[in-house]
């Protein structure tokens, strides 16, 4: 994947120029006028590039679109790094994956994708990315007759849509996505998350990994995700806090810890795995995305930073304990029963927004996360695990 700061720089400066040029072209050619009615929609395009957690939180929106247009052919466009999340998803007829490993590959895709999408004869397109001009450009160039996307502050892209929906950052992200469907008269009443569909091969791989690492059927599993994506590493609760929490869990409860993470996160996760005192299995980089979802679905409890796996765990039905600071749980916290969220609520937090393109410039060394102590987290975890009567002897330090 392209270095995040580089991607932001290109998207901001080249993207604004291209959005302005296409906006002018659209006005000259009449592309800002809708040329098809919603009742005659037969081919739909949905675009969502960035954010594993966002993909999961968007599933009620995908369901609502399918419910409104049950006979339409739905094409989903996303990044190649998201392969596996929706491979067996019933509401998409086709998934197109965009390569974004290098600047060169993105340039190739910028010219390839419009040709590919125009062949689909798109009637209605949804751009679910609240920020980023690239997705808006592809939406416009797809040739879709009705184009629905966000009007986001400082993005200069809303004129590429025929229906620009104001982005309300006071809402939870799940409800923000549903605002797009409301823009075409659809009210998604069911806001539950769809679980990731896991193939038999992925389940068998997890069975094998568990067996090889001494995890037997019936073992109590606590999952840990110490990572946060490159969008904002500042979302990570301190490594030393995770280590102390892991050791307290193992000292007090008869459980096995399982660490998860992407391949590029494996070295960071390995630092914790090597220091933990007790049964700890490091699966970072060893599973597919769907395989990770299977692991999280087997967890009695999942402890995580504000990041994609937290949303996957919630979708798979796992109770969670999570840490928020730069981002607000009012927008990204797990919804429903069974979730404990820590958020210190300092005067400078949250500092991440769509308006500032999710950039963190923190002069306080992420004090918003450091204010969440190990004692606080340990008490919450113990309350969850103590509901079982087979806790090992020991006391909280």
Give the rounded overall mean pLDDT: 90
What's the tally of helices?
14
Which class do the helix and strand fractions yield? alpha/beta
- Gyration radius, to the nearest Å? 22 Å
User: Describe the biggest sheet?
Assistant: 6 strands, parallel
How far is the first residue's CA from the last residue's CA? 42 Å
Coarse morphology: globular
Task: Please trace the helix and strand order, writing H or E for each element.
Answer: HEHHEEHEHEEHHEHEHEHEHEHEHH
Number of strands: 12
β-strand percent reads 5-15%
The helical percent reads 25-40%
Strand order of the largest sheet: 3-2-1-4-5-6
Low-confidence stretches: 389-397
Q: Any overview of this molecule?
A:
- The chain has helices at residues 4-29, 52-57, 59-68, 103-118, 133-141, 173-182, 200-212, 239-252, 266-275, 289-297, 308-315, 329-332, 367-370, 374-385; strands at residues 43-47, 73-79, 94-98, 124-127, 146-151, 163-166, 221-225, 256-259, 280-282, 301-305, 320-324, 339-343.
- With 397 residues, it is of the alpha/beta class.
- It has a six-stranded parallel beta sheet with strand order 3-2-1-4-5-6, with helices on one face.
- Helix 3 packs parallel to helix 6 (173-182) and helix 8 (239-252) runs parallel beside helix 14.
- The radius of gyration is 22 Å and the shape is globular.
- Mean pLDDT is 90; it is low at 389-397.
Keywords:
single chain; 397 residues; alpha/beta; six-stranded parallel beta sheet
